[in-house]
Amino acid sequence: MRPCAVIGVGQSRHASRRDDVSLAGLVREAVDRALADAALTLEDIDAVVLGKAPDMFEGVMMPELYLADCLGAGNKPLLRVHTAGSVGGSTAIMAVNLVRAGLHSRVLAVAFEKQSESEAMWALSPKYPFQPPLLAGAGGYFAPLVRAYIRRSGAPQDVGIRVAVKDRKHALLNPYAHLHLPDISTEAVASSAMLWDPLRYLETCPSSDGACAMVLTSEDAARHAPGPVAWVRATAMRSEPTLFAGRDQVNPQAGRDCAAALYKLAGITSPRREIDVAELYVPFSWFEPMWLENLGFAEPNEGWRMTAEGATALGGALPVNPSGGVLSTNPIGASGMLRFAEAALQVRGLAGEHQVDGAKVALGHAYGGGSQFFSMWIVARQQL
Amino acid sequence: MKKARAVAIVAFAQSPAVRREWARDDVELLLPVIQAALGQAGLRKEEVGFTASGSSDFVTGLPFSFVLALDAVGASPPIEETHVEMDGAWALYEAWVRLSLGDVDTALVYAFGRSSLGEPRDVLGMQLDPYYVAPLAPDAISLAALQARALLDSGRATERSLAEVTARSRRNAKANPNAQLSGDFLPEALLDAPYLVAPLRRHDCPPISDGAVAVVLAAGEKARAATARPAWIRGIDHRIESHGLGMRDLTRSPSTALAAANAGVSQGSVDVAEVHAPFSHQELILREALGLDGAVDLNPSGGALAANPLMSAGLIRIGEAARRVMDGTARRAVAHATSGPCLQQNLVCVLEATP
């Protein structure tokens, strides 16, 4: 397996509605920034991998066909990945594999969602033939899992509020974040409307228009990069079915297995000690402590203590989502890639005001479906 | 293309293509196909290293249609798995890339398409540029007719040569128990049929099909252990062209020609070719782009004119080509898959009996 590095990262400005750009314009905003970061042009790219969540969000079937021109993909290979909410991560991993297999030396990975062109609540509430209707959106699906976590762990009721306040404060340091709420406070979150008990309005991710892009290259191309690079130490993916007897949806085995495989490949034996910063897919506040346990940063039922002690805030022992995370910016198809890209920015030392001092090893994490699809990577300042 | 690890197709199974699958859901459609493919390869599901699937939400009319389909794999304990919102041929490409890395030896690739749930000619129109083209509501058959007209005007095909493609496809399909349309037709008789969208007649267009397909890949010794005669992937490549129909010469397929060159189609004689041409005239364009001469046994399965489950028909072409290498009918075979309006995106795979 050949080495692979991130040499360019770009993201769009994120907002509830980006009426000023088409789908192609939105995607190019991120792509142009990633290429500028890598000091490359579209002509230098050998292959493109594009990911997004369901086509019904924008009402365009297989939009990579229409986007081929804006991606400069003419006469090149173009792949389209769709693995629900984890797709941004899976897209990056596909691009890494193309480099690692020695097929291409410079691959562009792109993910986007323009949620203003649809109603996500509707699109996330399908009526499947032969299945009972859910019609509750993502929050309706995940809230019972959060209640189960609280009951199981005995966590105090304010842990979710702490996560929401922390991530929204972090977002104030990230110029690309969708939500900038300068007046955010414990009281503001606690008094916001209860949407899906126990998840309040301000503990919930927004619907965003946005895109993210990365340039991934072979070792030789990375040596010619103009700036610092992030070496891809390891990638991992795991899936399990939505429903089966005995499935633990609070702490899914697919996530635990994925993290274990990832750490083994990256040579990490103590994630809490060896990982400096983590960008986790936390669309609802309580998923921070849940994922801390699933990812092995804390023992089962103990993850909330890290949040409560402030360990996951900037300046803490393990900063989680210094970018503001999914709670602050959620263009669904791009959200996973934003986690991967922010991890890369951290180890490159290019995260700006939300930089974690001295970050050398970072985790990017994404999940999708009913907590059943996982994709993760470890990036580092140094090659293994 | 750089030399990659030796990877082969070792099993292939498909469901009979039908006009409308009323009784079974996607999982029930896929389950026997996946089990048959794994059975051929002598693999238990726990032994599969990587799984990739292809399907389209717009075809099914549901977001996340691949999610429940995962039940057909029985992914507990958890597996390494991914999905392309494309024809399963591109899922196979992804699996081939994954096996090329060297740490995983086997892969399951599957695809499904329930085309009957909508009107495919309208559904496929949703692939178009959403701002300038899709609002005009051109449907897939009308776009193909534009391409066919351009080809006829170029003087490189006639309406009779189109009818000959269909006649041969349906004649070949008589030997394919999974085909939907088959039989003996004289080109002259086909030319008596009225136009559907001129210059295309109904028989120049693919049937609406529901179906599923599964293929098993294996690397090196694992491939030899799975079957006596693996179909080795000697080259595989895919390329896309501009989306703008006015930006390209619709009578040619340069992305197919480029993929064919990268896959090494011309580096040996071709015994069998399975070409994904949903419309009769597209076979003529593709034959030229692939550089296939008259000696090649073209679409012995009947091709997409005989059965066209969306998002599966391309992977079926690869499976059909591989089957002929595995059963000894062919020493060297070419498979092709297409995606997008008027052959916008194309994949070419060369399969050989020796690695």
Task: Give a written overview of the molecule.
The complex is a heterodimer of chains A (384) and B (355). Chain A has 384 residues and is of the alpha/beta class. Chain A has 14 helices and eleven strands. Chain A has helices at 23-38, 64-67, 87-100, 120-123, 137-153, 159-171, 186-190, 219-223, 253-266, 271-274, 287-294, 303-308, 325-328, 332-348, and strands at 4-11, 47-51, 78-81, 106-114, 194-196, 199-200, 209-218, 230-239, 277-279, 361-368, 373-380. Chain A is globular. The two termini of chain A are 13 Å apart. With 355 residues, chain B is an alpha/beta fold. Chain B has two domains: 7-119 and 208-231, Peroxisomal Thiolase, Chain A, domain 1 (3-Layer(aba) Sandwich), CATH 3.40.47; 131-201 and 234-352, Peroxisomal Thiolase, Chain A, domain 1 (3-Layer(aba) Sandwich), CATH 3.40.47. In chain B, the strands form two sheets. Chain B has a ten-stranded mixed β-sheet with strand order 3-2-4-7-1-8-12-11-9-10, with helices on both faces. A two-stranded antiparallel sheet of chain B has the order 5-6. Chain B starts with 6 loop residues before the first strand and ends with a strand. The interface between A and B is large, with 65 and 64 residues. Chain A: This is 3-ketoacyl-CoA thiolase. Chain A: One of its GO terms (molecular function) is acetyl-CoA C-acyltransferase activity. Chain A: It comes from Myxococcus stipitatus (strain DSM 14675 / JCM 12634 / Mx s8).
Largest sheet of chain B: 10 strands, mixed
CATH topology of the largest domain in chain B: Peroxisomal Thiolase, Chain A, domain 1
| Cα-to-Cα separation, first versus last residue of chain B | 16 Å
What low-confidence regions of chain A span 5 or more consecutive residues with pLDDT below 50?
A: none
Number of domains of chain B: 2
- Across the major sheet of chain A, the strand order is 3-2-4-7-1-8-11-10-9
- Average pLDDT value of chain B? 96
**Known CATH architecture of the largest domain in chain B:** 3-Layer(aba) Sandwich
Strand content of chain B: 15-25%
Structural class of chain B: alpha/beta
Distance between the termini of chain A: 13 Å
> What is the H/E string of chain B?
EHEHHEHEHHHHEEEHEHEHEHEE
Q: Give the SSE string of chain A.
A: EHEHEHEHHHHEEEHEHHEHHHHEE
CATH topology of the domain at 4-120 and 208-222 in chain A: Peroxisomal Thiolase, Chain A, domain 1
Overall geometry of chain B comes to globular
